[in-house]
Amino acid sequence: MAHRVFVIEDQIEEAAVAAAFEADAARWPDPEAHLELVGLAQNHTDAFDQLESLEASSDGLPDAIVLDDYLPDGDSTASRMIQIMRWLLSRARKAETPLESRPRAVLWSSCEPNIVYTFCALGGLQYQLKKDLRGQEIPVAAIWRALAGQRWRPQPFPNERDLTLDMREALPYLKHGWTQKRTALHLGLGERGLSGFVAKVKEMPRAPGPLSPDYPANDAGALRVLAESGWVWVPHRLHDQMPAGMPFPLVIDPAAHLEDLPPRPHIPEAYIHRWSQ
Residue 55: phi, psi to the nearest 5? Predict the structure, then answer.
């Protein structure tokens, strides 16, 4: 049985997706290693209608979902990734569907790393930058990586030994402009809870030395070094849209993020491998 794929994107035609899937299937000796388009939505309202119909069908929700972040909304466009991923997460939790059995989501858009991580925190697996594909191409390789259970990794990948858990949790608030004192009190750490934050960052391998103009002498400099070292988080402005019980926390947990999901059946051998840091 083919892997069922649902696409949410407004600038690609159904025929182009079907042709790409047919061309891809011809590459693999296993006839079951095949992607099948089960729906194409060009706005978020249509996406929800089609997903609800698929959910109610005998086959249920698709094996993979490809979605763009910005979709048509009247005369303009609007970010809809969080809304769609929240819907998928709520359905999975209501049905008590384990993480490995949920639709494998691919974000096919142009986003900063923190937005890609937000997608992953809500249950997404793969990201494909749109400008890396031409014209009517569809991110077939990213779909297969998601079906294989591979997670998107920020590059470089952060080292969990760089920061304590308390410091890690503070990143979105410090980036938002909060002081260490306000952040520490908000997180229940006490006034001195983040007192060693900048000193810890100065010790990191990627931190510029004291003679460099980029030396992390304050919170802003430390956050810049951390971003360059692969640390990603859900931006503070989006915290109120994040539901409880997400698969990942608000700030990346490097150890947990290295854990891939089990592959679905009939994955081409080219996509069965573990990512290295």
Answer: -60, -35
**Amino acid at residue number 268:** P
Q: Tell me how far apart the alpha carbons of residues 88 and 273 are, in angstroms, rounded to a whole number.
A: 27
> What token pair was written down for 225?
């070094």
Cα distances from 237 to residues 17, 26, 131, 234, 250, in angstroms, run 35, 45, 26, 8, 12
Taking only the tens place, the pLDDT of each residue in 130-172 is 888 775 589 999 999 999 999 999 999 999 999 999 999 999 9
| HSE, side-chain direction, 13 A CA sphere, residue 112 | 9
pLDDT tens for residues 86-139?
Answer: 999 999 999 999 999 999 999 999 999 999 999 999 999 999 998 887 755 899
pLDDT above 50: residue 276: no
The answer to whether 4 and 63 are in contact (CB under 8 A) is yes
Domains and CATH numbers, the chain: 3-156+254-271 (3.40.50.2300), 160-229 (no CATH)
| Nearest Cα to Cα of residue 250 among 143, 118, 132, 146 | 118
Q: What helix, strand, coil percent values describe the chain, rounded to 5?
A: 40, 15, 45
